[in-house]
Amino acid sequence: MSTPISHVSDTAHWVAMYRAMESERPDALFRDPYARRLAGPQGEQILQTMPKAKAFAWPMIVRTAVMDEIILRAITRDGVRTVVNLAAGLDTRAYRLELPQSLRWIDVDLPAMQNHKRDALAAETPRCALEWLPADLADAEQRRAVLARVATGPAPALLVTEGLLIYLEPDQVAALARDLRACAPLRWWLSDLASPRLIKLMERTWGRKLRAGGAPFKFAPAEGTAFFEPLGWREAEFRSNWEESLRLNRTMRFARFWSLVSRLYPRKTRESFRRMAGIVLLERR
């Protein structure tokens, strides 16, 4: 059966379905009342046709929950006044999180994606000062125009790239990192990060279908967050997907058993497993 993915932006419908699934649980880690509406029939079809899609819901749910925590902490503890959501997709944090009205939130994505989201949320009111900024981030000139606009606003700023970097080539990530470093208000950069080991595992399940749909996995640096250090960014915090899944009780079957077994491995091996996938907060060097 073919998968209704023909562009990398279509994966946003898939991720929205995971948010909908979590939101409908009685013990939900977060509530996104708009997720199912935004995912639409395409999101349902992707979930039904991608191999083991429901079984692998937990990493996406964990990613959303942990990023929610870090974003709210950055605002309340660290005084972030601007959040820039690059390749925002169908994310609805500007509508569903408890945010100060004065917070400047900038959603950046392709015009078609933004039009779909704006139409679906036309009757809703954002919790903060939301700005819509259509742009193709693959175009260096458009990307720098976005950051020039960010530079005119209040600081400090937090940049979010959720579910973006894995679809970029390493040189594209490097170019993005340099451009971000040149934008003075940006103090922190929040992203998810995969390892080569994780990419190999996901390739076995989803690789063929995603390549056919124009959304192959690309970025998974062997050096982890050290990739960003020569580009002006250093690791401030790393949250292991595996550890967070156990903390939040959203994990795979027999996870606690495998956690016990892993204690038999050498420390270096345990650390490589811990960093197989995670949420990373980078800060300017």
Structural class: alpha/beta
Q: Using DSSP, what is the number of strands?
A: 7
**What's the order of the H and E elements?**
HHHEHEHEHEHEHEHHHE
The fraction of residues in strands falls at 15-25%
Distance between the termini: 48 Å
**Globular, elongated, flat, extended or rod-shaped: what is the shape?**
globular
Overall domain count: 1
Please give the CATH class: Alpha Beta
What is the CATH homology-level superfamily?
A: Vaccinia Virus protein VP39
Main sheet characteristics? 7 strands, mixed
Describe the protein's architecture and organization.
- The chain is an alpha/beta fold and 285 residues long.
- The protein has one domain: Vaccinia Virus protein VP39 (Rossmann fold), CATH 3.40.50.150.
- The protein is 44% helix and 16% strand.
- The protein has 11 helices and 7 strands.
- Strands 3-2-1-4-5-7-6 form a 7-stranded mixed beta sheet.
- Helix 1 (11-23) crosses helix 2 (35-49), helix 3 packs across helix 9 and helix 6 (140-150) runs parallel beside helix 7 (170-181).
- The longest helix is centred in the first third of the chain and has 20 residues, at 57-76.
- It starts with 10 loop residues before the first helix and ends with a strand.
- The mean pLDDT is 94.
